[in-house]
Amino acid sequence: MGATFAALRHRNYRIWAAAGFVSVVGTWMQVLGVNWYVLAETRSATSMGLAVLLQALPTLLLSVWGGALADRLRAKPLLIAAQAAHAALAAGLAVVALTGAGGLPAIYAISLATGAVSAIEGPVMGRWTSTLVDRESLGNALALGSLTHSAGRILGMSAGAVVVAAVGPALLFAINAASFVAVLAALFAVRERELHTGGPAADAEPADGGIRAGFRYLLRQPVVLVALALSFVLGSLGRNYQVTMAAMSEGPLGAGAAGYGVLSTVFAVGTVLGAFVAARRRHLGYGVLVGAGLLASGLQVGAGLAPNTLGFAAVILPIAAAAVIIDTTVGTRAQLDTDYAMRGRVLAALAVTGSVSAAVGAPLLGWLSEHAGPRQTLVLAGVATAVATAVAGVALDGLRGRRLRGRITRALAAPRVRRAASTAARVVRPAATVARPAPMATVRPVAGVPTARWAPPRPRGARLRPPADEYAAAAPRRARRRPGLAAASRPAGPPVDCARSTPETA
């Protein structure tokens, strides 16, 4: 089994991934069914948006409590209770859709309760999933989870559209209720003796398992805080494409509802490709996060300048892939770079960050699209996210001991790089074009003073010696001043011609 599916080597994860795929398909069928039911009853997009808001609002309020519970209680009983609650709520939606009992207030109440259960379940589920594989396979497991979610979303929305058009939304709710049976079966099939739990808490506070301890712990993790801040900016300004795609389709591109459907499909395919790319990487570090953020920001500027729907779709595809890589990397680092005893509360903070970014970014981008134009909104948001990513990259490099600067320095000092730089310097400035010093002006000789002449520059470290003729002319004067030295330096016998001498005469 290749590196792309390394997490599937673990039996527990294989069981959980299969059950999760079934559950994701059912969940997206229910999302489509709720939206369709509310829209058919009210003919109002605002009412449909209210149902979506009621499901997302509890995440902002209850996720931190779910994180505290995840760190204090065993995950398996909590997950069993959550899946049973989800199944009961989905069955309740099916009853309302079939009988009409309760009407829209019942739909809104069930949507709110579903959001509350999901808010508490999310951190527990994240911590449970991290125990199904070892530390080295955690990033791959999260990437495959993104792949499962993206593929399940495509299948659930596609199959749900066919079912709701044929028999109505009640069957969608019933299918979702049945899908939780697969998750319950997987929970009982997982072997607890093969779970990979973390070691002893090094930085956690065992005596205080509450929310305040989680906040105090996060404040002592500046690297994680910078990653969460970057995730918020990229999520609010660079990830709310349901708003900007609709604005571009209705506005500059003139593609209408059909074009919006095509762009949504392309975006979904991009998320699948991004999940594959993330799964193939053995290490998802902060360099990957910064690189994907810069790539997505640049492509977002290009999306604002796209001339037609085809060009916009071509840019949307890699943007969706980069979005999945960013989410997977942030989730991986948030779990690997924090204490196991605080993992639930860290995942809760990550969930709150995603919810707040969606709640802030969607209306902001919508307002900018109406007042400044969709193209201008995409370009402005792309530039803002690029600047934020660059600032976060510098901050992360400083907090992690200038690792990026050290890597660049070591790369530049490598022998191959130095040889390449030397070769490039010779090509750019060959020896023939090196400027030579101009000859000195001719000076009239003066009696008794040797004439100055130009000499080539001497090598570094060589001793400065006058020319032979000047040395010979100056020798008698030095000898007269120092007769003892001259006598001592005079040879004792006649000079020997070394060139013609034999070994005997030498």
Low-confidence stretches: 199-207, 427-435, 477-506
* Tally of alpha and pi helices: 18
What is the CATH class of the largest domain? Mainly Alpha
Beta-strand portion reads under 5%
Mean pLDDT level: 80
Which value, in Å, is the CA radius of gyration? Answer: 37 Å
Content-based structural category: mainly alpha
Strands, count: 0
CATH overall fold name of the largest domain: Growth Hormone, Chain: A
Series of H and E elements: HHHHHHHHHHHHHHHHHH
CATH level-two architecture of the largest domain: Up-down Bundle
Q: End-to-end distance, in Å?
A: 81 Å
CATH homologous superfamily annotation of the largest domain? MFS general substrate transporter like domains
Q: Bin the helical content.
A: over 70%
Apparent shape? globular
Number of domains: 2
Describe the biggest sheet?
Answer: none
Q: What key attributes describe this structure?
A:
506 residues; mainly alpha; Growth Hormone, Chain: A; 0% strand; disordered C terminus; transport
Structural account:
This protein has 506 residues and is mainly alpha-helical. The protein folds into two domains: 1-193, Growth Hormone, Chain: A; 209-413, MFS general substrate transporter like domains (Growth Hormone, Chain: A). It is 73% helix and 0% strand. The chain has 18 helices and no strands. The chain is globular and about 80 Å long. Mean pLDDT is 80; it is low at 199-207, 427-435 and 477-506.
